[in-house]
Amino acid sequence: MADVEPATSLRGRSLLFLVTEDSYFESHRLPLALHALQQGMRVLLLTRTGERAAHLAGLGIEVHHLPFERAGLNPLRDAALLWQLASLYRRLRPDVVHHVAIKPVIYGSVAARLAGTPCVVNALAGLGFVFSSSSLTARLLRPLVRALLRRVLSRRVSRVILQNRDDVALLLHERLAPESHIRLVCGVGVDLDVFHPLPEPAGRMRVVLPARMLVDKGVYEFVEAARILRGRGIDAEFVLAGGIDAHNPAALTPEQLRAWEGEGLVRWMGQSDDMPAVLSASHIVCLPSYREGMPKALLEACACARPIVTTDVPGCREVVRDGQNGLLARARDARDLADKLGLLIVDAGLRARMGAQARCIAEREYGIGRSVEQTFAIYRELL
Q1: Residues of CATH 3.40.50.2000 domain(s) within the chain?
Q2: Nearest Cα residue to 99 out of 41, 157, 188, 160
Q3: Which CATH class is domain 7-189+368-382?
Q4: How would you list the strands of the sheet with 119-124, edge to edge?
């Protein structure tokens, strides 16, 4: 890579983020925006505005509403959105655009080409529903998405941010992007001061699944593992900590979640604004996902020194080293998940050792400053 210019060279430059929802931007990309503002950059956000827009604007970020829909394909609506996006790029004239997730990457890259935007960063935080789901919709969309990604990720003035080595290997195998364009940034990082270790809580064992309530987060397997362990006479509380994502094709319904509650298998607490408290009140964190980029929930669990049970899939196995800071179970296998959870539920010493190792890994590899530093190195490389 060429010599990196000093950070002061970013002063006066403009950085634009294209993200589908303001709440996701706040939870996953806000540290980048705040660092950019500290460097004297102009920071813009194009997103579907909601309840967080006013707060973000108050921080100094220029927020522009864009009627982005994560799900669904409507050719007329999408063509209008693309035209609006290209017009905004021409008017706002950002020096760097940073697109997050598959749909913003595709639409934003096309708009950037039409508008002559000089530098493009495409962040694929996992490969999403299209690549993780076995549904008919996902299988039909996959060839189209592959073709579009292959076209937009090859632009000379662009870079691709991936969060785990499995996704790097997949992009290279599918020839979706030149190897010289790919940069590995290990997640969005975690604030090690906000998420800090606390002793295990007293009382009944609690296992928490912190994620949106989606099929591909392994919620069915989590509930079934709770059923299996109850049948074995192992007493623990199983908690679902996450909201409904109605725009996602894999979303579960409130009726289904309440039915499981009615059986006494799990407790659904919904979305929490205080994840440090949720994690500190737990003994074990579980994420039986089918595929991830770099799951923020697991980084937070590591920082809180909680042992983890997750699946042996891309993203999850990047964070959890089997036998060190947690255990890896087979994906979509509730019995194996129950076996792994059972080992930790009955062994306090194992939980303590794995939790301590989890915190060490978080401090060594996943501090938020490291993620910000790696991403800004990419901006400077392009500029």
Answers
A1: 7-189+368-382, 206-365
A2: 160
A3: alpha beta
A4: 62-65, 42-48, 14-21, 96-100, 119-124, 158-162, 182-184
159: part of which helix (H) or strand (E)?
A: strand 158-162
**Mean pLDDT, the chain cut into blocks of 10 residues (383 residues total):** 53 96 93 96 95 95 88 76 94 97 93 95 79 71 85 91 92 92 93 96 97 96 98 97 88 96 97 96 97 94 98 96 98 98 98 98 96 95 92
CATH number corresponding to 206-365: 3.40.50.2000
Tokens of 331: 């994906």
Q: Which amino acid is at 373?
A: E
| R_g of the chain computed on alpha carbons | 21
Neighbours of 60 (CB within 10 A): 12
Q: Report which secondary-structure segment, H or E, holds 237.
A: strand 237-241
Contact partners, residue 177, CB within 8 Å, separation at least 6: 149, 150, 153, 154, 160, 171
Q: What is the pTM of this model?
A: 0.90
pLDDT value of position 73: 64
